[in-house]
Design brief:
Strand order of the largest sheet: 4-3-2-1-5
Distance between the termini: 34 Å
Protein name: F-box domain-containing protein
InterPro entries: F-box-like_dom_sf
Order of helices and strands: HHHEHHEHEEEHHHHHHHHHH
């Protein structure tokens, strides 16, 4: 068995799921130390229910990106892939190299040898992605990469950058060399399911006394958020915000109001996009009039939250999942040459955007969401990748 294979966009690995199974089994054994903690019933239940099918599906849904051979087929065989890599590439050749991608899935038996299988109608093609001129990304990260870079960082550019910089295969490497993935989950051959907690600390979560609190601690404090699907927008229950909140009564005019209080809401909204959320609350608490203007009128609060997200946290903007746009294949399931993978210019319009009735409540849920925390991290990785690609002229 080889070491874990990481997505070069997210720094995540589908290997976490079999590792999680081992983690669930081993967690019942007391750790070998003076303070021998054993998980209580709440911790045991949290371990079993922390991950659902959605998180597993996002890890197992992968895309291979690699070099095409002279027949226009993606080089997937291990020996051919390694030979092609050893020939070396210069930047000029990289620009002209024909790049293919193929939608694949993780087969546990093949995965142990660094291989993934294509999703074709005929016999699946085996791609060697642990070394050589093919690599793997989690399919749903391609949509994040496109949005984070306004479509400037394409799968082709990512491949060329990976070939120039190489992959980080060191003790704690999780992707492309010299790229900060924001949260290091690499640990020799075994990624950590809860990279933020040791066994004893996890067992002590039993004292929280509530299953949801234990799961929340594992997700945020324990660092499990780094493995969660980064497109689970916390929209709330259906119909939860169908009714518009009532506006607060406008306070009576105070004598000699400050000029800042008298600013029109359009000016206040612009100012609020320039400060932190904590500052927005502080400004609102400065006077009854500001409290009413900023947080007491639903339409004002809604606009401020929406514009704040647009200006400061575009990764929170909710979209319908568009993974079908991240790969293309012909009727037989064969890959299409990379130039056909370029996205439409109108993709970054509001097409696919999910309407939100209450942006302020949605923003508060985003701040508590492990999925959105991971989305923010991956978004930042994509921006670093684009910056590095520009730096190397890729």
């Amino acid at each position: 068995m080889i070491g874990p294979i990481y997505c070069l966009i997210s720094g995540c690995t589908p290997q976490i799921h079999p590792e999680r199974s081992q983690w669930e089994e081993s967690v019942y054994e007391p750790v070998r130390c003076e303070d021998k903690h054993v998980p209580g019933p709440l911790v045991e239940e949290a371990i079993k229910t922390l991950v659902d099918d959605e998180d597993e599906e996002w890890m197992d849904n992968v895309t291979v990106i690699g070099l095409a051979d002279n027949r226009g087929k993606l080089i997937g065989h291990q020996d051919k892939s390694l030979r092609a890599e050893k020939k070396g590439f210069d930047v000029g050749r990289l620009r002209d190299a024909p790049i293919l991608s193929d939608h694949c899935y993780v087969d546990r038996d093949s995965w142990e040898y660094g291989d993934i299988l294509s999703k074709t109608k005929r016999k699946p093609t085996v791609y060697h992605v642990s070394q050589g001129v093919c690599f793997m990304v989690l399919t749903r990260t391609l949509a994040i990469m496109r949005r984070a870079t306004d479509g400037q960082l394409t799968p082709q550019r990512l491949w060329r950058l990976a070939m120039i910089l190489g992959r980080d295969t060191g003790f704690s490497g999780t992707g492309i060399k010299d790229i900060d993935y924001g949260f290091n989950v690499g640990q020799a051959y075994y990624p950590w399911t809860l990279p933020g907690l040791y066994h004893n600390d996890m067992c002590k979560l039993e004292s929280l006394g509530d299953l949801e609190l234990v799961k929340e601690a594992m997700m945020l404090q324990g660092g499990y958020w780094v493995w969660t699907a980064p497109d689970r927008f916390p929209l709330g229950a259906p119909g939860q915000h169908a009714r518009r909140p009532k506006d607060e009564a406008e306070p009576s005019n105070a004598p000699n109001p400050a000029k800042f209080e008298m600013l029109p809401i359009e000016a206040l909204t612009h100012i609020m996009t320039l400060v932190s959320l904590a500052d927005i609350v502080s400004v609102a608490s400065a006077s009854k009039r500001l409290q009413h203007k900023i947080l007491g009128v639903h339409s004002n609060t809604n606009t401020i939250a929406r514009e704040w997200i647009n200006a400061n946290a575009p990764w929170y903007k909710p979209y319908q999942r568009d993974e079908e746009e991240t790969h293309q294949s012909d009727d037989d399931g064969d890959s299409i040459v990379s130039d056909d993978l370029e996205e439409d210019d109108d993709d970054d319009n509001e097409d696919g955007a999910i309407p939100i009735a209450d942006w302020w409540q949605y923003l508060k849920r985003c701040l508590q969401s492990g999925s959105m925390k991971n989305r923010k991290r991956i978004w930042a990785v994509c921006e670093r990748l684009e910056q590095k690609a520009d730096e190397f002229g890729v």
